[in-house]
Specification:
The complex is a heterodimer of chains A (303) and B (533).
Chain A lengths: L15 H21 L7 H4 L1 E8 L5 H8 L8 E4 L4 E6 L8 H14 L4 E9 L1 H29 L2 H24 L6 H31 L5 H11 L1 H21 L5 H32 L9
Antiparallel strand pairs in A: 1-3, 1-4, 2-3
Chain B lengths: L4 H23 L5 H6 L6 E2 L1 H4 L1 E8 L1 H22 L5 E5 L4 E6 L2 H14 L3 E9 L2 E8 L1 H26 L5 E5 L3 E7 L4 H9 L4 E5 L6 H5 L7 E9 L6 E9 L4 E2 L3 E8 L6 E7 L1 H13 L5 E5 L2 E4 L11 E4 L5 H13 L6 E9 L1 H30 L1 H23 L3 E2 L1 H30 L4 H33 L2 H35 L8
Parallel strand pairs in B: 1-19, 10-16
Antiparallel strand pairs in B: 2-8, 2-18, 3-4, 4-6, 5-6, 7-8, 9-12, 9-15, 10-11, 13-14, 14-17, 15-16
Helix pairs in contact in B: 1-12, 1-15, 4-6, 6-7, 6-10, 11-12, 11-13, 12-13, 12-15, 13-14, 13-15, 14-15
The chains are: A alpha+beta (303), B alpha+beta (533).
C-alpha cells in the first residue's frame, strides 16, 4: 500500500510565506487569548492551592456542592465537572495546618450527601513556595532542552540547521500554548511534560528531513539549496505522513480511552504533534534557507 | 555489528528471555517455589497515582531549631551570670525574638565577655552599643554553628519521621531528603490520610512545667504576666457533650524536663471509664530528674505539655521514684495510639510544614490502571494491523520488532525497579506510535532503493545503512528532550520520562537489529527474489 505516490513535486518552499503568516496569526490569537484570560490558566502546581476530586453515586449537583461548601468558607472555590460522576473542587487555599482543609471539605460533604454518598478520590495541595519552585523548574527544563538540542544539532549538522530546528520547536510550543489558552485548559506539571514531549517528537521529525537535505546537498553540490530542500521534503513526505499517522492514532486512542486524569495531557500532545508535523515541513527547512541567504555556508554551491 | 545471523539471533533471544524472567512475577501470581528461591520476584513497581497513596513534601523550619538553641543557650548563660554574680539586666524583645543584655559598668561587661569567650563558643555578639556608660549587647548563634544546627535538624527530622512511619505500620514507605531542608514522604496504600499527616507533621515536643499558683491567672490574662511565667491552654473534652473547650492556665516558664528523658511510651486503658491514656517510662537520667522534681514540689501542680498545649496538670501527691508517669486527657483510642508513637519516636527538632500533598485513592488508581491498559491494548492492535496493511510481510517483521520492544521495555522497568505511573503508561503508548518510525524510515528507504532497480539484497543493505544515521540522530535529539523531562519531573511525570526514554532506546535496537536479522535470514538463507513491502 502507498499513501503518497513516489514522485511528488510539491513546492513547499514557495508555501513558506503563507505558512509563516498563518503561524504568526495563530500565535497572535494565542497572545490575545492570554491577555483576555489574564495570563495562562495556571493549575495548582504553579499557582498553589488545593484540588479535591470527588466521585458521587449519581450525577453530581454542582449547586448542592457549592451550597454545602459555603458555610465552611470555600465560597471562592471552583467546581468543575470531571467525567460523568465526578467533580473537581479547587480552592486557592493551601492548608497550612495538616488536618484543616481536607477534613473540613469532608465534613461539609458528609453533611450534604451522607457518609457513603461520595468518595474522595484524589487530593492535591501545593503550597505557594513549591508552586514558585515548580514554575522556575518547568521554564528551565523547556529552555535547557532547547539549548541541548541546539548544541547537538549544531554539532551533528550545521548551526543554521540547529537554528531552524529551534525556531520550529519554539513555534510548536507557542502554538500548543495558544490552543491551551483558547480552550481555557489548565497549565500544570503534566502540560509541561507534554510540551517537552512535543519538543522531543517535533525535533525527531525535523531531523529526518534535515538529514535528507544534508545527504542531497552533498550528492548534488551544484543544486540550489531551495531545490534541495524541496526535493528532500518531498522524498521524506510519505514517511512524515506515515509516522504522524501512527502517532496521532495512538494519541487519539489515549485521548478517548486514557481517562480524565490525562485528558488535558493528551489534548496538549495532540495539538503539539500536529503543530510539530506542520512546522517540520513548512517552518524548519525554509528557515535554513533564510539563514543561508543571510550568511551563505562555506560549501561551494550556486544560488 | 555481528556478521553471523545465528549469533545475533541468539543475543536477541537471550535478551527476550531475560525480560520474560523479570516480567514473570508481574504476569502471574503463583510462581513455582524454585523460582522464588533463585529468580527475581519483584513486580513492576507502581507509582502512587496507580496504586493509591500519599505523597508529601515537608519543609523543616530549620531557623526555628537555631532559635530554640539560642534560647536554651541564653537561658543557661543567664543562670551562669547569676551564679558568678555578674550584674546585668535582661531586656526581652519578643517581636524579634532576641534577648539583649545590659550591663551597668565596664567591669561587668568585661566579665561577661570573658565568660562568653570561654564557655559559649556557639554564641556570638550580634550587636553591641554603649549609651550613658551602660553597655548593651544582643547575642546570636554564630553562622558556622547555625549551619550545623540546621543540617542536624533536617537529619534528625528525617530519622524521627521514619521512626514514626515505621511504627504506624505502612508497607514500603519512602522517606527521602530533598534539597537543603525538605523531606519527601511517600506512603503507598494509606487510607486515613488526615491521621497520617498529623502523625508526621506533629512536633511532639513534650515538656514538664510547674503551674504558677502564686500569681493570679485573671491578672495575667489582662496582660500583666508575671516575670518568668507564661499563659498556656488546657484542652478538655466534655464527656457527655463531646465538646472541646480550652481553659487558660498560668505556668512557670522554665521547662523542668523534656521528651528526651523518655525511654518508652505505651497506650493503656484506664479502669474507670475504659478511657485510654498513655503511660510513659523515663530513662535513667529522666527517672532521677523526675524523682528530684517530685520531691521538691510535693503538693504543687505539674503540667504536662505537648506542643505548647497542656494535656493535664495533676497535683504531685508524693515523691515518684519509679520513673513512670501517665499522660491522661480525653483521648480516643486512635489519638492515644498516635501520641504513644510520637513520644516513642521522639520530638522533631524543629516544626515541619507540609508544602505539597498529593493523595490518590485506591479506586482511582485502579481506574487509571484499567483505562491505561485498555488504551495500550487498543493502540497496540491498531498499529500492528496498520503496519501489516501498509507494508504486508515487511510490516509483520516490524510488528515482531514492536512486540519485542514492549517486552524489553517492561522487562527493563522490572529489572531496574523503575516506577510505572499513569503518564508512564501514556509514554508506553506513545512509544508504540514512535517506535514504528524507525521501521517506516527503513522500509521507505528500501522501497526507494528497489525503485532504483536494485536487487532485494542490495536494497535492504542500502536501506538499512542509509536509514541508520537518520534514526540515530533523530532519536538522540528526542532523548535529549526526554533527559530534561527526567531531570525536571517529579513522581508521575518522571515515570513518563522513564518509559519514553527506555522505549526510544529499545526501539533503536529492535527496529534496527532485530528486523535486520529476520530480513537477512530470508535473503541469505531462503534466497528470496522479491520483497513483500
Amino acid at each position: 500500500m502507498e499513501i503518497i505516490k513516489t514522485d511528488t513535486h510539491f513546492n513547499f518552499v514557495r508555501l513558506m510565506k503563507p505558512a509563516v503568516i498563518l503561524s504568526l496569526a495563530v500565535i497572535v490569537i494565542g497572545i490575545a487569548s492570554l491577555i483576555w484570560h489574564g495570563g495562562p490558566n495556571y493549575g495548582i502546581d504553579f499557582a498553589g492551592g488545593s484540588l479535591i476530586q470527588v466521585k458521587f453515586q449519581g450525577e453530581p449537583d454542582a449547586d448542592k456542592i457549592r451550597g454545602a461548601l459555603k458555610p465552611m468558607g470555600f465560597e471562592g472555590s471552583i467546581i468543575q465537572k470531571f467525567g460523568p460522576q465526578e467533580v473537581i473542587i479547587r480552592t486557592a487555599e493551601s492548608g497550612a495546618d495538616p488536618k484543616g482543609l481536607t477534613s473540613r471539605i469532608d465534613e461539609a460533604l458528609t453533611v450534604a450527601f451522607g457518609k457513603g454518598g461520595y468518595e474522595v478520590r484524589r487530593i492535591e495541595m501545593v503550597g505557594p513556595k513549591v508552586g514558585k519552585d515548580l514554575t522556575k523548574k518547568a521554564l528551565l527544563a523547556i529552555v535547557f532542552s532547547w539549548i541541548g538540542i541546539l548544541i547537538y544539532v549544531g554539532v551533528r549538522f550545521e548551526f543554521r540547521y540547529a537554528l531552524g530546528g529551534i525556531v520550529a520547536l519554539v513555534h510548536d510550543v507557542l502554538i500548543t500554548i495558544t490552543f491551551l489558552s483558547v480552550f481555557d485548559k489548565e497549565f500544570d506539571l503534566n502540560i509541561v511534560a507534554a510540551l517537552l514531549t512535543i519538543i522531543g517528537y517535533s525535533i525527531n521529525d525535523t531531523i529526518v528531513i534535515f538529514d535528507r537535505i544534508r545527504e542531497n546537498s552533498r550528492k548534488n553540490t551544484r543544486m540550489p539549496l531551495l531545490d534541495v530542500i524541496n526535493v528532500s521534503v518531498n522524498q521524506t513526505l510519505s514517511r512524515t505522513i506515515l509516522t504522524s499517522l501512527t502517532v496521532l492514532m495512538v494519541l487519539i486512542i489515549l485521548f478517548i480511552f486514557g481517562g480524565s486524569v490525562i485528558h488535558d495531557f493528551t489534548f496538549a500532545l495532540l495539538v503539539g504533534t500536529v503543530a510539530g508535523i506542520y512546522s517540520t515541513v513548512f517552518i524548519a527547512s525554509p528557515i535554513v534557507l533564510v539563514f543561508e541567504k543571510i550568511k551563505p555556508s562555506g560549501l561551494k554551491r550556486k544560488k | 555489528m555481528f556478521k553471523s545471523i545465528r549469533l545475533r539471533a541468539a543475543v536477541t533471544i537471550v535478551l527476550c528471555l531475560a525480560a520474560l524472567v523479570y516480567l514473570a512475577p508481574t504476569l502471574t501470581l503463583d510462581l513455582p517455589d524454585f523460582w522464588k528461591q533463585y529468580l527475581p520476584t519483584d513486580k513492576i513497581h507502581l507509582g502512587l497515582d496507580l496504586q493509591g497513596g500519599m505523597h508529601l513534601v515537608l519543609e523543616v523550619e530549620t531557623a526555628k531549631a537555631v532559635e530554640s538553641t539560642l534560647e536554651r543557650t541564653v537561658g543557661d548563660l543567664k543562670e551562669n551570670l547569676m551564679d558568678k554574680r555578674i550584674r546585668f539586666k535582661l531586656r526581652e524583645r519578643t517581636k524579634e525574638r532576641d534577648t539583649s543584655f545590659e550591663f551597668p559598668d565596664v567591669a561587668a561587661r568585661d566579665a561577661f565577655d570573658k565568660l562568653l569567650k570561654s564557655d559559649y563558643p556557639d554564641l556570638e555578639i550580634a550587636t553591641s552599643a554603649t549609651a550613658e556608660g551602660k553597655g548593651s549587647v544582643t547575642l546570636k548563634i554564630n553562622d558556622k554553628r547555625a549551619v550545623e544546627i540546621k543540617k542536624l535538624a533536617v537529619e534528625q527530622s528525617l530519622e524521627t519521621i521514619r521512626n514514626r512511619v515505621d511504627q504506624f505500620g505502612i508497607t514500603e514507605p519512602e522517606i527521602i531528603p530533598q534539597g537543603i531542608d525538605r523531606i519527601i514522604v511517600q506512603l503507598p496504600g494509606i487510607k486515613d490520610t488526615a491521621r497520617a499527616k498529623s502523625l508526621i507533621g506533629r512536633t511532639a515536643l513534650l515538656e514538664f512545667k510547674l503551674v504558677d499558683e502564686e500569681h493570679s491567672l485573671d491578672e495575667a490574662l489582662k496582660g500583666n504576666i508575671p516575670e518568668g511565667s507564661v499563659v498556656a491552654y488546657e484542652s478538655r473534652t466534655d464527656r457527655t457533650s463531646g465538646r472541646r473547650s480550652q481553659n487558660p492556665i498560668l505556668l512557670k516558664g522554665k521547662s523542668l524536663m523534656a521528651g528526651d528523658a523518655l525511654e518508652t511510651a505505651k497506650v493503656q486503658i484506664g479502669d474507670r471509664f475504659g478511657q485510654p491514656h498513655v503511660s510513659i517510662k523515663f530513662n535513667a537520667q529522666g527517672a532521677k530528674d523526675f524523682d528530684r522534681i517530685t520531691v521538691e514540689n510535693v503538693k504543687k501542680r505539674l503540667a504536662i505539655i505537648l506542643d505548647g498545649m497542656v494535656h493535664s496538670a495533676p497535683v504531685i501527691q508524693e515523691r515518684i521514684s519509679g520513673g513512670q508517669a501517665q499522660i491522661t486527657g480525653s483521648f480516643t483510642m486512635e489519638e492515644a495510639t498516635d501520641l504513644a508513637i510520637v513520644l516513642r519516636a521522639g520530638a522533631l527538632p524543629a516544626p515541619v510544614i507540609i508544602l505539597e500533598e498529593r493523595t490518590v485513592g485506591p479506586s482511582l488508581g485502579q481506574d487509571s490502571i484499567d483505562k491505561g491498559t485498555w488504551a495500550s491494548i487498543i493502540a497496540g492492535i491498531l498499529i500492528l494491523v496498520f503496519m501489516v496493511v501498509y507494508y504486508r510481510l515487511t510490516g509483520l517483521i516490524a510488528d515482531v520488532a514492536l512486540a519485542m520492544n514492549m517486552l524489553l521495555l517492561l522487562g527493563i522497568m522490572a529489572a531496574f525497579k523503575a516506577t510505572l505511573t499513569l503518564p508512564g503508561i501514556a509514554g508506553i503508548v506513545l512509544t508504540m506510535g514512535m517506535a514504528v518510525d524507525a521501521n517506516v524510515l527503513i522500509n521507505e528507504r528500501i522501497r526507494e532503493e528497489l525503485r532504483l532497480g536494485k536487487t532485494p539484497r542490495a536494497a535492504i543493505e542500502a536501506g538499512y545503512t542509509k536509514a541508520f544515521l537518520t534514526i540515530f540522530d533523530s532519536n538522540v535529539t528526542t532523548l535529549v528532550a526526554a533527559l530534561f523531562l527526567f531531570g525536571f519531573g517529579t513522581g508521575p511525570v518522571k515515570g513518563f520520562a522513564v518509559t519514553l526514554t527506555i522505549g526510544i532506546a529499545v526501539s533503536m535496537f529492535t527496529a534496527i537489529v532485530v528486523t535486520r536479522i529476520i530480513f537477512d535470514h530470508f535473503v541469505w538463507n531462503r534466497k528470496i527474489q522479491k520483497i513483500s513491502i
